[in-house]
Every structure is written in C-alpha cells, then in structure tokens.
Amino acid sequence: MGIKTDIGLKGDDYQWLSSMFYFGRPTSLRAGSAQSVDQQQDTSLGNTLRIASSNAFLSPNTLPSASSCGWYTKKEQGTRIGIWFSFNGWGQIFGGLVAYGIAEGSRLHGSAIAPWKIIFLVTGLLTAAVGVLFIIFIPDNQLNARWLSPFDRRLAIERVRVNQQGIGNKHFKMYQLKEALLDPLTWAFAFFALTADIPNGGISNFFSQLIVSFGYTPEQSLLYGTPGGAVEVVALVVCGYLGDRYGNRLLISSSGLLTSIIGMVLIVALPLSNAKGRLAGYYLTQSSPTVFVALLSLIATNVAGYTKKTTVAAIFLIAYCVGNIIGPSHYGAYG
C-alpha cells in the first residue's frame, strides 16, 4: 500500500520495523530514543515506538490472567480467555476488510494521503475511542461496577469465592515476587511464549507477502487474509470451551498446534502451482495460538496472589515480545 516506497524501506528495514513494536511494549521506551540516519525511517521507528509504548501501559493491565480470576470461576476462565483472545482474529477480519476497502477505493478514486496512512488513522482513532469507553465503563472489580446494584455486587463476589484468590487486594508483596521468580513454572511459561512466538512474529508481519508469493495480488492478499482470522476465532473459542468442559485445557488446545503443523506442511510440500492448497495451509496455521491462550488461562487459574500472578503474567508477556522481535529476522530482505 505504498509504505515501503514512502518511508524508504530497504534491505531488512521492514523486519526491524516489525520488531520495533515489540521493543516498545515490554520496556515502554520513549519514542525519542529511536535514531536513524534516514529521517523518514526515524519517523517511522519513532511512531512505532510511540504506539508500542502506549500499548505497554495497556497490555499488563488487560491481560486476562490478571483480571479474569476476579470475575469468573476457575471452570469458566478457559472459555472466557479464549473469547477474549479470539478478538485478535476478529481484528484480522475487520482490519483486512478495512485495508482492502481503502486500497481499492484509493486505487479507483485516489486519496489525499497514502492509503497506509489512512489505515493507521482509522484503526488508531478507533482504538483510542474504545480505550476511552473502557476507562469510563469497565470497572476494576465488582465493588466498582456502577451498573450493578449493591446486592448484585455482593452476589458477583460470592460466586467467585470458590477461587480462593480474592478480588481487591492489589498491594505489592515482596515474598510473592520472590516466589514468582523462583518458581520453575514461571520460566516454563516464558520459554513456551518465547519459542511459540518466534514463528508468530514472522507470519503475523509477513502474511500478506506470503499470500502474494502464492500468486495473488497485494490487494487480494488483504482480502484473502481475513479467513485466517476466522480460523483463529473458531479454534480459540472451541478449544477454550472444550478445555473447560472436559477439564484438560492443555491437551485439547494441543489440537490447534497439530492443525497449524499440518497447515505449514501444506505450504511447504504442495507444488508452487497449487495456490489454493497453499492458501488453505496458511489458514490452518492460524489455529496455533490455542496453547498460548491455554497457558494464559492456567496463569489465571493456578497462580495465586495478586503480586505473583501479575509478575508471572508480565514475564510471560515479555517472553512473548522477545519471540515476536526475533521472528521477523528469520525472513529474507523485504524488497
């Protein structure tokens, strides 16, 4: 959509631009720290860091592992977190349709600014608007839920008493921090997040180029990428529900990984002329987040103590970011 030419991307610049977003999330770096010889690339990197730094304040506070235990029972959390994360898939569907509409509209009728800038404005303003609505309407816990009567607030608290994890004590406790850092499971979670998101960092940033390599046009790649989001939605919701239903989230969520492996085999093994088969393989790869989300739900269910839970969730998020930083570097130079 013109971003490569407009900001002068060369060699592996696109890989670094893709990774830069994840540098900002765990560190909340100021955008001014991004420096480049090329001023246009500096602006791009700086804006990417601004977006990521803003998102860094949001991500730890919206991680369902840190919040869902206060609203849902342990038996409900796998399904709820699956639904929460499935909106990545809905975002892929919505974003793909919007991007395709903007690209086609600009091609047919022209536009005052570059199409990729329009996409940034539309999605950025929409995200900011939703953030304001969350600040206004979404409470920290049942005690602050203005849309519940005092009696209903007590009922909402009573129904999660079975979790034995509390809802309102958010004081920092040093002993829980030490427990989190010394717990082998913390680092097992982090290791999986790191290794699982190395391929994710590549596919999520290069999926459009991947579809183009199958023989489709860049505009078609925007549209044909949307069914991948639908696959992610279905996989996460179904695995989340069945994991809670049968009490084995990890085993059931592993089906998503097996499905994604089949999809990758199709991409690699099918003849280059079989564009539809390879595209179907790409769609199957989008079921891969199921185990990642199952681990998020296990953090919510099995890690007690607010400080320990948020520490484990933060380490998990940092490992996720590191994996997504590494991922794009495994792809060849873009252009």
Structural write-up:
The structure is a single chain. The radius of gyration is 21 Å and the shape is globular. With 335 residues, the protein is mainly α. The chain is built from 15 helices and no strands.
Summary, kept brief:
The protein has 335 residues and is an all-alpha fold. It has helices spanning 3-6, 13-27, 39-62, 64-67, 74-109, 115-137, 150-159, 174-182, 184-213, 218-224, 226-246, 249-269, 275-285, 290-302, 306-326. Helices cover 74% and strands 0% of the residues.
Radius of gyration: 21 Å
Instruction: Give the helix tally.
Output: 15
> How many β strands by DSSP?
0
SSE string: HHHHHHHHHHHHHHH
Overall shape: globular
* Low-confidence residue ranges: 28-54, 56-62
- Give helix % range: over 70%
* Terminal CA distance: 14 Å
Give a short account of the largest sheet.
none
Ordered list of secondary-structure elements with their pairings:
Elements: H1 3-6, H2 13-27, H3 39-62, H4 64-67, H5 74-109, H6 115-137, H7 150-159, H8 174-182, H9 184-213, H10 218-224, H11 226-246, H12 249-269, H13 275-285, H14 290-302, H15 306-326
Question: Which tags fit this structure?
Answer:
globular, mainly alpha, single chain, about 0% strand, about 325 residues
